[in-house]
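User: These chains co-purify. Model them together.
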Amino acid sequence: MVADSRAPSAARPARLNAPRPVLVEAGFDGTPRQVNRQAVMLVREEWRVVDRWWTEDPIGRRYFDVVLESGEHAVVFHDTEHGGWFTQRA
Amino acid sequence: MVACILIPGFELRAALRERPRLATRAAALAPLPGSDPVVGPVTAAAEAAGIRPGMRLGEALATCPSLVLVEQDPAVAEQEWEGIVRRLEDVGFPVEPAAVGCLYVETRGVERLYGGLEQALGRALAAVGSSWDARAGAAERKFAALAAAGVARAGQVLVVSNERAPDFLAPLPLSLLPLDESRTAELERLGVRTIGQLASLPGSAVAERLGPDGRRAWGLARGGDNRRVRPRRPPAEIAERLEFLEAVANELTLRRALAVLVERALARPERAGRAVRKLALSARLVGGGSWRRSTTLREPAAEKERLRTALAPKLAELPAPVTALGLEVAELAEWTGQQLELAGGEGAGSATRLKEGLRQARASAGATAVCTVVEVAPWSRIPERRALLVPRD
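Assistant: Joint model of the two components:
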């Protein structure tokens, strides 16, 4: 049986700005070279977020604020705990 | 006559109700978080140890290292004060509360009932309760009554007749007047140390030197105006409370709790359809102590949205997680209906259309189709933890 998505139980708060997977090709030093098959022209900023290390679900991220060859800005991060690249508005 | 009933250090006494043993030790009322770090009223033992109300916290602790700082409990103080005012009203006095710990009553109507002025005031002090160490002063004018209560001992009634009032006020210190410390110090440097000396100066000279405050103090020193007691309107008795299973700091949860409290309060039959004029929001804090904020609506309202909008910003002022949240309706309007405007205001139609549009969007795409962004931890370093998308009611 399929649950009715309009039922009140479905109306739960959702996270805003959740990370979305992104295709990234990184260089030997871990900085992104391509994002979604677009070359990275400039890494504007880089920072790390290490949080909740005292819990069973620690967070370790290496963020990059990059400018792509199309002129578009993007913020991507590498999840150092579970692996994988994601994009997110910082 | 006008009588003033004074309870010095009321907030401290209220906070010590649950810890009576501290009353015999050196204790002082702690400052509120975020306020000036000065101590409030102090116990007799603390006063004997050299602590004075208004002393800097560091200085007080250096003077008396065993000083116990008592956390303020504004909700309990408010409750106890309301109890005192109600007891006085129950024994027949029209009461005008001036501040917490100070009120004025009109004695004319009850003097014959109790067999005289002093007996009536004795009855009033008995109604207040002996544990509060209240004192009463009576005079023809409010300021003289306040001054008489200020110099009376605990449980004493001091009556100052109109003829004796100037002689009574003359030797009293300037500290009884509502003047800044700097103004009082300025007057003392000029050699003016008593109320009588101030009263003997020309009013225009005082006004020129000290401004409007000085002029007002000069007026009081000469007896003050003869405004009568303006009895308060007895408050409504509608209070709702919500206890939490564990301490709550999340604004979203607190807003939901507030919505429940508003709905419950509006559903109370005592309201009899009347609109709400004044509300108070109170909370029990996790580390002990309480918090209370009251608000008077610009226009009485009985719509839950308007009440929620008026109260919700107060939740942001909570200093700690709470274990219980309470809502009191302090005053109700006299009327039950409201004259609506003949033509709808600008934008009234679009608000209705927007509401209907949102309803249709929800009906076709589900309850999560229309959401509000609620900030839950805007300081978080993890972007997805800063805000939630909450489906709109």
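Chain B touches chain A at residues 252, 362-363, 366-368, 371, 373-374, 381-391 (CB under 8 Å).
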